[in-house]
Amino acid sequence: MTTTRLVVMDVDSTLIEQEVIELIAQHAGTYELVANITERAMRGELDFAASLAARVDTLAGVHVDDLAKVRDAVTFSPGAREFIAECQRRGWEVALVSGGFTEIVRHLAHEVGITRFRANHLDVVANRLTGRTTGTIVDRAYKETSLREFAAELGIPMDDTVAIGDGANDLDMIHAAGIGIAYNAKPIVVEQAPYAISGSLISALDVIDNHPK
């Protein structure tokens, strides 16, 4: 019998090659500051929620029209489209969980036919970012929660789930999944994840197909 799987992917530096918050920061003139905080957070040196608040605070005043420019600037990671298409061809469910922003993630999900996603929401007043987020913060713990909730909704056992990410904030979902994969990941993630790949995301299929039943 063919296994129906749930594949949950991180977005920034996993599904796509960039960190969206850094692209937005270019429009705010705060790129170097934000990139430094992002790097430290992804290495696990900073609390994610606190680091997110500090980075988003620097984006205050950015016009929403600049978010469209950011959407146009992002590029999918090598093999990402092909990997998702093959998962969908096999009848697997693919979802996105992102410490990034719904305003960008929704667009990316739509482009590759994904309907389940969770990300942070940027607060906007008078068409400009306020420097705050609204709603639940998608941090390390909430990524794992999302994986478990998606699996429960779909009736897919946790043993048949896959989680793919690159940062320290992906480690809980990588450990919780039946198959946890680090992709182009920070050293701490490569060290702790059951599997680690780089280059094309399509190689994740080899990991999944060869994972002991």
TrEMBL record:
Stored SUPFAM superfamilies: HAD-like
Hydrolase listed as a keyword: yes
Transcription regulation listed as a keyword: no
Pathway stated in the Swiss-Prot or TrEMBL entry: Amino-acid biosynthesis; L-serine biosynthesis; L-serine from 3-phospho-D-glycerate: step 3/3
InterPro entries in alphabetical order: HAD-like_SerB (IPR050582), HAD-like_sf (IPR036412), HAD_sf (IPR023214), PSP (IPR004469)
Active site: 10, 12
Catalytic activity as recorded in UniProt: O-phospho-L-serine + H2O = L-serine + phosphate; O-phospho-D-serine + H2O = D-serine + phosphate
EC number: 3.1.3.3
Keywords for this protein: Amino-acid biosynthesis, Hydrolase, Magnesium, Metal-binding, Serine biosynthesis
BP GO annotations: L-serine biosynthetic process
Gene Ontology cellular component terms for the protein in this record: cytoplasm
GO terms, molecular function: L-phosphoserine phosphatase activity; magnesium ion binding
Cofactor dependency: Mg(2+)
Family note: Belongs to the HAD-like hydrolase superfamily. SerB family.
PANTHER family referenced in this protein's UniProt entry, alphabetically: PHOSPHOSERINE PHOSPHATASE
Name of this protein: phosphoserine phosphatase
Species assigned in the record: Jonesia denitrificans (strain ATCC 14870 / DSM 20603 / BCRC 15368 / CIP 55.134 / JCM 11481 / NBRC 15587 / NCTC 10816 / Prevot 55134) (Listeria denitrificans)
